[in-house]
């Protein structure tokens, strides 16, 4: 499948308009349209319906869009691996729900003192994938959170982070300094899809599995569900800093274990550079102890 045609397809799908997609790709519209037609001919189905406002995905197009992002990301990953042979190394780090972002820069700064040519690319994983892309070999190392199924992975504990309740700003709970987990009982919760790791889902839902509420796949969707649907739910405490916005309050929660931040990698991984990064992260997360007097 032609990767250039796939990139054109994704641009049209995301823009919903051939003209805007052509401008985004710095490409004239006729060549863009030809690539879409060639792709449709190759697949034997129509990918877009023309509508007055632009273009709308057909059911076949919806299926391809889900696959296209994965195919393009894998192609980019392969390109980086090939280019990295004999050149400066690129480490790809997967991150879930902001895990490790505070200590990450200090760890990388320390590592670059011994590996000055090191380059790093962060991949933000959806909250539906606690392995942050490790299972699909999209990343070299994951900064993630327990609990989830870690079979086949080596996990290094780094830190513990409390959780907060994410509630509408006009909710009575928003005026409290702290709440107990049980005070969220009976409220619509934002929930993860059924296909998500069972341990991970149970930890973040912290309620009966059939609790009502919208299904989400990202932190942004969690926040939107609070704003638009009056849902509530749990997020890491760092969300209160990284995702401040009008209409949402973050309240510390008692009665629920903290989120355990870890570095994870495939058990068979023997890459010394990944070893060095894990050690740098461990040092960066290590709390400093003030002198006792």
From TrEMBL:
SUPFAM superfamilies from the UniProt entry: Periplasmic binding protein-like II, Winged helix' DNA-binding domain
Residues in HTH lysR-type domain copies: 1-58
Domain of life: Bacteria
Cross-referenced Gene3D superfamilies: Periplasmic binding protein-like II, Winged helix-like DNA-binding domain superfamily/Winged helix DNA-binding domain
Keyword entries, A-Z: DNA-binding, Transcription, Transcription regulation
Family of this protein: Belongs to the LysR transcriptional regulatory family.
Protein name: LysR family transcriptional regulator
UniProt lineage: Bacteria, Bacillati, Actinomycetota, Actinomycetes, Kitasatosporales
């Amino acid at each position: 499948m032609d990767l250039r045609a796939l990139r054109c397809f994704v641009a049209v799908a995301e823009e919903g308009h051939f003209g805007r997609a052509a401008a985004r790709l710095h490409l004239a519209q006729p060549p863009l349209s030809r690539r879409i037609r060639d792709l449709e001919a190759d697949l034997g189905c129509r990918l877009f319906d023309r509508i007055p406002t632009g273009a709308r995905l057909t059911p076949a197009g919806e299926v391809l869009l889900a696959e296209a992002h994965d195919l393009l990301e894998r192609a980019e990953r392969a390109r980086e691996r090939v280019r990295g042979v004999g050149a400066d190394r690129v480490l790809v780090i997967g991150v879930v729900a902001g895990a490790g972002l505070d200590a990450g820069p200090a760890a990388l700064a320390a590592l670059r003192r011994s590996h000055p040519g090191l380059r790093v690319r962060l991949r933000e994983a959806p909250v539906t994938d606690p392995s942050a892309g490790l299972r699909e070999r999209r990343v070299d190392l994951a900064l993630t959170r327990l609990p989830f199924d870690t079979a086949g992975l080596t996990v290094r504990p780094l830190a513990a982070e409390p959780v907060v309740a994410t509630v509408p700003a006009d909710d009575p709970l928003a005026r409290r300094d702290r709440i107990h987990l049980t005070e969220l009982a009976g409220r619509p919760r934002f929930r993860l899809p059924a296909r998500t790791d069972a341990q991970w889902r149970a930890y973040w839902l912290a309620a009966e599995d059939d609790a009502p509420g919208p299904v989400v796949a990202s932190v942004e969707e969690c926040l939107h569900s609070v704003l638009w649907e009056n849902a509530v739910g749990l997020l890491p405490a760092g969300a209160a800093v990284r995702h401040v916005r009008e209409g949402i309050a973050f309240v510390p929660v008692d009665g629920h274990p903290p989120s355990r931040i870890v570095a994870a990698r495939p058990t068979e991984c023997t890459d010394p550079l990944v070893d060095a990064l894990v050690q740098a992260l461990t040092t960066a997360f290590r709390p400093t102890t003030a002198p006792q007097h």
